[in-house]
Design goal:
Helices cover 38% and strands 28% of the residues. By secondary structure, the chain is α/β, with parallel strands linked by helices. Strands 6-7-8-3-9-10 form a 6-stranded mixed sheet, with helices on both faces. The radius of gyration is 24 Å and the shape is elongated.
């Protein structure tokens, strides 16, 4: 659905992004993460056709962004970091205006505007001037304009900035509803949003991709592979010897009655370890499979590079 090839953008002698390569499949929800100044916003502006790259290629649904800009923009809903709003327009008038700009047929405009208002919880302010709305409501209007044309692709740059915790939860629910029927690239600094909504994560730092994987895949890479921790009441040395013979187990560390079992195949490893501990009557007290949290992963990868 989205194909990025050798994408580079220079500002004078500074590379904002440097030879990016990645793809996003149809219906996928991808978290696009990185520290401030990493190149996220620049990349999203290029994907949406708001900015030209120095070199490289971007294709959306098979169309080159710069050879066929209208075809691309018809398929994309974009929420930039600062929502593009006209303060002197009423909310519903503005959404109708955006829908028509996107080429929505007249017969569908009212239906899609009503849907966007409902999805973004704007019903109470739909007849008010945008300039009189709070920051949180203006952010919701920005999200509504991104989805009002029912686009195939959504590019969302910090969609929950300025929202209170209840509104943030509502936007997360909306993103979960949209997944599958829309392809979504989500950039945010609120890491629980990514964990709640995204299937895959791309982490960018200093204009380069430093990681691209599922959350569990990144966690395993950071921790050096899968492992299971367990605490038993007795027979820990005997159990450790038996565990070393289990298929897929690469090493066993023992510290008193606590064992750390390294291996491959997470679910299979957990099952084998728990079954053997019970069979050896070791008095299994606790078993866990710790994973690195997204915050740990983010800090580790953006500090190393």
């Amino acid at each position: 659905m989205i194909e990025i090839s050798n994408l580079t953008k220079n500002y004078g002698d500074r590379k904002a992004i440097d030879s990016l390569n990645f793809t996003v499949k149809k219906g996928e929800v991808v978290g696009f993460l990185g520290p401030n100044g990493a190149g996220k916003t620049t990349t999203m502006k290029i994907i949406t056709g708001f900015m030209a790259p120095t070199s490289g290629q971007v294709k959306v649904a098979g169309f080159d962004v710069f050879e066929n800009p209208y075809e691309v923009k018809r398929r994309i809903g974009y929420l930039p970091e600062t929502p593009p709003l006209y303060g002197d327009m009423v909310v519903t008038d503005f959404l109708e205006f955006v829908a028509k700009l996107k080429g929505v047929e007249d017969s569908r405009v009212n239906q899609l505007v009503a849907r966007a208002v409902e999805k973004t919880q704007l019903g109470d302010v739909r007849h008010r001037l945008i300039q009189n709305l709070s920051k949180g409501y203006r952010q919701r209007v920005g999200l509504a304009q991104a989805i009002v044309s029912d686009p195939e692709i959504l590019i969302l740059d910090e969609p929950t900035v300025g929202l209170d915790p209840r509104q943030v939860a509502e936007i997360r629910t909306l993103l979960q509803e949209l997944r599958g029927s829309h392809t979504i690239i989500l950039s945010t600094h609120i890491l629980p949003e990514v964990q709640a909504t995204c299937e895959r994560v791309i982490i960018i730092n200093r204009g380069r991709i430093v990681a691209e994987d599922t959350l569990s895949g990144l966690s395993n890479r950071l921790r050096g592979g899968s492992y299971v921790q367990l605490r038993v009441r007795r027979n820990s040395s005997e159990l450790a010897q038996a565990l070393k013979a289990v298929g897929g187990v690469t090493s066993v560390e023992i510290n008193g009655n606590n064992l750390k079992v390294h291996g491959t195949g997470t679910e299979e490893l957990i099952e084998a370890v728990s079954e053997l501990a019970v069979a050896k009557r070791a008095g299994l007290v606790e078993l866990s499979h710790p994973e690195a949290g997204l915050e740990d992963i983010f800090i580790e990868l953006t500090t190393q590079h």
